[in-house]
Amino acid sequence: GNANYRDVNQNRRNDLFFNPDVGDENLEQFYNLIQLDGFNPLVIREVFFSAPDRQTLNGLLTRAIDAEHHASACEFLSQPFTPGSLMAWLQQNGIQLKITSGDFLGSLITTCKRITETEHGEGFWTDHWTYNLDLLENYLALYPENEQSLLFEKQTFTFYDNAHRVQCRDDKYVLWDGNPMQLNAVVLDEEKAELISRRRTHPHLVRTSNGHGDIYHTTLACKILSLIVNKLASLDPQGVGVEMESDKPNWYDALNGLPGVLGSSISETLEIKRNVQFLQKALNKRSSKDQQLTIFEELESFFDMLHQLLLDQLSPYDFWNRASAAKEMFREQTRLGISGRETGVSFVRLQEFLDAALTKLDLAIEKSKQNDLGVLSTYFINQVTEYSMITKEDGSPKTNLKGMPCFRAEGFRQVALPLFLEGPVHYLRTLPSTETARELAQKIRQSGLYDRQLQMYKVNASLEDQPMEIGRARVFSPGWFENESVWLHMEYKYMLELLRNGLYDEFYRDFKTVFVPFFDPAVYGRSILENASFIVSSSNPDPSIHGNGFVARLSGATAEFMNIMLLMTVGQQPFRLSPTGQLELQFRPALPDWLFTLEPSTHRLYRKDRWQTLQLPADSFSFMFLGDILVTYHNPDRKSTFGVQAATPKRWTVYPVDNNSPSVSGPSLSGALAEDVRKRKIQRIEIELR
């Protein structure tokens, strides 16, 4: 069914680890939904398919159905369809398949083109683009050999074309009851809507010839650079957070009033840094330094202006003012489409820009720590302290469509909100040094984010002294719903980052107090077999509900927990390339000694359409890898797999699906064996830890 971009995106993060055949499908879909301005439509609808290859289609129909139905089937398939609608049509018309439905659909879909249906929805959130890098990193954890071709050679990436656009500052900065605010930032562009409506195919893909030409295709590296440039030009007037410039906040949308008071967030600043670091590393892997990245000319002009601003040593306000002007010029140039002319940017020039951007971002991150504990503040209000009214040519005041007078901001004062867990989570995503990460984790336990009674982590510290204007979070009682509760999804995100940063002692110290399977159902108030949206923290005035979970939720926290299990069992990068370019499979588990079995046990496992009985020995830990492969660690010394005395993989025994003799290898697999695992030609792996 229909769902929001962010939600679908994060829930597909681990798809490849259940079915490697998904390939780059998810990341291409979500990167292609990013617009020229860095935003995206909100609602992802069902996927439709089209069958443009009529010759291949006719061959399949000849094999699948009687000849008398070919014409009507071709007519049905001439329009976009879903697999479900196709099977329903066959049934309604009494058409029997001569092959299995799985064979028919599998053969058909491989020849079709995907059509992703979307809706603009309620507006533009500031953070949706940040989830795409997770898809990309997980893809490269399985297919590391494809990195360079995917980024720099595959030209199948497009930009989503939206009839809604973000207004410039002169149109959205208004006085409301005498208060400087940002209102009605996103509007429908009637001219753009009419242009899109005239397109017969793929109407929501950016065209050349300023919207009247062919669909523009480019590389993934170009799309990532476009995101970096757009978002870097969106830093707030203090050069700290990314502005909420488009009516909506980010993940923590209970701060729905923050855009109106010119709010900003450090979370997206940190995600710009992640993208900069990723692109830097990818460029460094290219063998020839005189290579170029081909980009469209409007982006090159925007890139040049921003690069110069980074080099000019400007004050935060001047950088904001001039970068915003450059961004507004870019948006006006590309409002209907792009020219289609391209230019090359040398890798050397790209690296110089990325280095300058990183310097700017690191300064922003340090400025966000200006509080008593030195923990990053996540959210900010940028109060307008000086402004001038805008007048039209005839001297009359300029107003917006609702009659509010427009102003031009000339000075700001930044006010940080109380601590939120979200900023530290994104900071840990940038993988600082282990010691820096450990110091941050210690400070968080000393802050208002840690619930000492429940030994859990709250989504935010007290908002008691905050104005109501920040949003609905301020309305709820402390510890309830979206105000100072234990929001399970964000708490799990924090635990994931502890693990990713190698803070194993800290992670397992909190393991049994944070994760639902270890809760007391009498306190949790529901089955420990289901997650909840939030847990009432001890900040709530009603002690009888402290620790109670409310609102069953099976998406966000579950997605984080699956990611946590992957890191616990195989590590961040199971597949990698050796120095000679050979594929290697190496597991780096992070399991404590107490998670290994004490006694032999018998279990049932549903595999290959049937139940199988498994005998698992003592001192072992078993899990499924890539959806089909049973992996068992044998740990006769019952050591943890992290720390000074860690037990590590020493010997692999691999059992092929075809029941051939098992293959034995050393501490990892390489070459054909690693490839066989990825292709799921292996049914079982036994790994000895020592």
- How many strand segments? 28
The global form is globular
Biggest sheet: strands, sense, closure? 5 strands, mixed
Radius of gyration: 27 Å
List keywords for this structure.
690 residues; alpha+beta; globular
Give a structural overview.
The chain is of the alpha+beta class and 690 residues long. The chain contains 22 helices and 28 strands.
Layout: helices, strands, pairs:
Layout: E1 3-4, H1 5-11, H2 25-32, E2 43-50, H3 54-64, H4 70-76, H5 83-92, H6 101-109, E3 113-119, H7 132-142, H8 147-152, E4 164-166, H9 169-172, E5 173-176, E6 179-182, E7 186-188, H10 190-197, H11 220-232, E8 242-243, E9 263-265, H12 266-284, E10 292-296, H13 297-311, H14 316-333, E11 342-346, H15 347-367, E12 379-389, E13 407-416, H16 422-429, H17 434-446, E14 450-451, E15 456-457, E16 486-487, H18 488-500, H19 504-514, H20 521-524, E17 532-535, E18 549-552, H21 556-569, E19 575-577, E20 583-585, E21 601-607, E22 610-616, E23 620-625, E24 629-634, E25 649-656, E26 663-665, E27 669-670, H22 672-678, E28 682-689
Parallel strand pairs: 24-28
Antiparallel strand pairs: 1-2, 2-3, 4-7, 5-6, 8-9, 9-12, 10-11, 12-13, 14-15, 16-17, 17-18, 19-20, 20-27, 21-22, 23-24, 25-26, 25-28
